Amino acid sequence: MIRRLALASLTLGALACGGDESPSTDQTPVAPGATFTVQAEQLTATMPVEGTVAARHRTEITTRMMARITSLPVEVGTRVSAGQVLVRLGTEDIAANRAKAEAAVIASQAAADEARRHAARMDTLFAQDVVAQAQRDQARLGLAQAESQLALANATLREVETAASYSTIQAPFAGAVVARYADPGDVAAPGMPILVVEDNEPRDAVLSVPADLAAGLRRGMTLRVTTVDGRTAQAPIRAISGGADPMTRTVEVRAELPGDWPTGVSATGLVPAGTFDGVAIPSSAVIRRGQLTGVKVLTEDGVAVRWIRLGRTLDNDQRVQVLSGLEPGDRIVL
């Protein structure tokens, strides 16, 4: 019994001492296939930069007059085309104002016609030396005032007609409704958003990149962008701000994303941050057992499983950095 306990203690001690030494291996024979020779190389370091997915064009639909909403035929998620009617407003007040403006135009036109005839008579009588010059000048003054009243009435009518055009609000571009803040029966007021519409074009990852890293970026370069919901894309840079924010010392960089990505969600872009010497292997060569990661290494006796510690992924997840467990010259099975 004492001998068995001593043997168990020796076994546990050996495991405890060997846990931090060379990686464990599995000498189970495996037929080698294609191989990859590990070598040191220059790898590109990347820095994660936070940002947001945004639409290229986004507009808040508002009204330019205060009126009651009579029709709002779209909901959140509704696809709309350019020029499609989104909101209709009540026009009862506008109709009454138009009637008053039209009546004012008719009255002013009649007054101007009468003033014009009166001025013509005064000119004829003045030429015949029948009336004094003061009377003729008074007639001309009356004509000028009548014409001014007519011009004012016409301007008022045009203003009412312009206001009537505000009663129908159309989509400025094709896209989708992403927010709705009002319902039929509500009173819309200038500056109060009713809807929000975003276009159907490709999205942008709007990233705030530190100025020193932004200096190395160029339009057309691609950045790996991921979102919290697991979407990933290689996004080409389409715009770089010409200056940095004086408060954050960051530069706005916009990279193109697919048009079906949801807007407003957080995005992370991997921005190049220089190079360093390291080791990288194809991602397909990595084997996983629970939380352990390893590779099959060719040895003199065959193939052994060696556990390794991995770093960041590279080249759109095609390669992965090896932090420990492999040395240049090792040959691994793919």
Would you write up a description of this structure?
With 334 residues, this protein is α+β, with helices and mostly antiparallel strands. It folds into four domains: 23-46 and 275-333, conserved putative lor/sdh protein from methanococcus maripaludis s2 fold (Beta Barrel), CATH 2.40.420.20; 48-57 and 202-273, Beta Barrel (Elongation Factor Tu (Ef-tu), domain 3); 58-89 and 167-200, OB fold (Dihydrolipoamide Acetyltransferase, E2P) (Beta Barrel); 91-164, Helix Hairpins. The chain has helices at 2-18, 92-127, 133-165, 211-214, and strands spanning 35-37, 40-54, 58-61, 67-71, 79-80, 85-89, 168-170, 175-180, 187-188, 195-199, 203-210, 222-227, 232-240, 250-257, 266-282, 287-289, 292-299, 302-314, 319-324, 331-333. The chain has a six-stranded antiparallel beta barrel with strand order 2-11-14-13-12-15. The chain has a four-stranded antiparallel beta sheet with strand order 3-10-8-5, with no helix packed on it. The chain has a four-stranded antiparallel beta sheet with strand order 7-6-4-9, with no helix packed on it. A hairpin with a 2-residue loop joins strand 17 (292-299) and strand 18. The longest helix is centred in the N-terminal third of the chain and has 36 residues, at 92-127. The model is unreliable at 1-26 (pLDDT under 50).
